[in-house]
Amino acid sequence: MTAQGVYLDNNATTRVDPRVVEEMLPYFTEQFGNPSSMHGFGARVGARLDWAREQVQDLLGAAHDTEIVFTSGGTESDNTAILSALEAYPSRKEIITSVVEHPAILSLCDYLENKRSYKIHRIPVDRQGNLDIAAYRAALSPNVAVVSIMWANNETGTLFPVEELARMAKEKDKAIIFHTDAVQAVGKIPMKLADSVIDMLSLSGHKLHAPKGIGALYVRRGCRFRPLLRGGHQERNRRAGTENAPGIIGLGKAAQLALESMAFENSEVKRLRDKLEAAILAAVPNSFVTGNPETRLPNTANVAFEYIEGEAILLLLNEQGIAASSGSACTSGSLEPSHVMRAMQVPYTAAHGATRFSLSRETTEAEVDKVIEVMPGIIARLRVLSPYWDSAVNAPKEFAPTYA
Ligand code: PLP
């Protein structure tokens, strides 16, 4: 528990690990050279960038360090991947994605559909958030330039079988480029890209205890590539602009630490997540987990509470110093449930109350216990206000719709 309270919003962003800060600091001060320069000041920074690239390579299990291109984060990596594929295969006018992607993919696809006349196949999901594989298979064709399917969903943690989806795409047509937005998955689950046929993968530093504004795009050797930013020769002509040296070095350190703590993430972090989830479900009637309960990230619990508003839950949690996030993010000021909840057909009466708790290796047992202690009271307090809830008997009223 920090002085600021309990932080269970690690899918939004993570605290920069102090070891990452320490690694970065010299590159703001005495090691300030431009890595492209032909002198010692530059070469010393350049050598550390090479080291950072190898750390990211190792975390991804990639075959070559040259397959890692540093970017400003997940959004840039996602945009680069899709726009590169479209430029590499100009005669192909179709894109396959899923309905539950992050806006970094979805709003780019909306733009490409509306302004550039691409056909977008948005593959649906079932009530557990699993991808409709038959619909995916049916959409594959030689008209498709790029498939972009996320590895892990940011709201529910549900994992898609991206390695298998990539194989299916290649079986249909070797030239289809397969990209995965793995921003939530990298550092949380083991990866071995060298053994897969995934062509491109996006990751973001601030989701794995590195700073905001740094990320990477994995581009398989041999994959056709067109840069998004043109200018200098940095990143082997794949991403122009003087490198964010401290950020890259921080990402390298964060990748090294993530690899070291992978086993911990999948045992201890998962144990705390499961404890939190089980205790809440046991104590709060008409609550349930959204997403696939098995095939999902070890750190994410998305719990829907029927008949209440997620925003109200967050406010009351915040009063207790607890940070979580709402599945019904009213990003546009409307009270629409999130596109992920709608895609899984979670009914409005439950989708509104979806609350995401996302843990990290820094989460403590005491933090989890604190949430377990306050959650039933918060929900009971809000349900008093619900027209569907009978607080006298602590159950829904007879006419209340329920999520079976
Ligand atoms: N993709 C996913 C799945 C995400 O969760 C996020 C961030 O929330 C992004 C992309 C965007 O990454 P960035 O914030 O580094 O641009």
Topology readout:
Elements: E1 6-7, H1 18-24, H2 40-60, E2 68-71, H3 74-88, E3 94-98, H4 103-116, E4 119-123, H5 133-139, E5 144-148, H6 162-172, E6 177-181, E7 200-204, E8 215-219, H7 234-237, H8 245-260, H9 262-283, E9 287-289, E10 300-305, H10 310-319, E11 322-323, E12 325-326, H11 339-343, H12 348-351, E13 354-358, H13 365-383, E14 389-390, E15 395-396
Parallel strand pairs: 1-11, 3-4, 3-5, 5-6, 6-7
Antiparallel strand pairs: 2-8, 7-8, 9-10, 10-13, 12-13, 14-15
Helix pairs in contact: 1-8, 2-8, 9-13, 10-13
This protein binds pyridoxal-5'-phosphate.
Residues 73-75, 78, 102, 104, 150, 154, 181, 183-184, 204, 215 line the site of pyridoxal-5'-phosphate (PLP).
Strand order, sheet with most strands: 2-8-7-6-5-3-4
Which percent bin holds the helix content?
A: 25-40%
Give the count of helical stretches: 13
**Shape-level CATH architecture of the largest domain:** 3-Layer(aba) Sandwich
Please state the oligomeric state of the protein chains shown. single chain
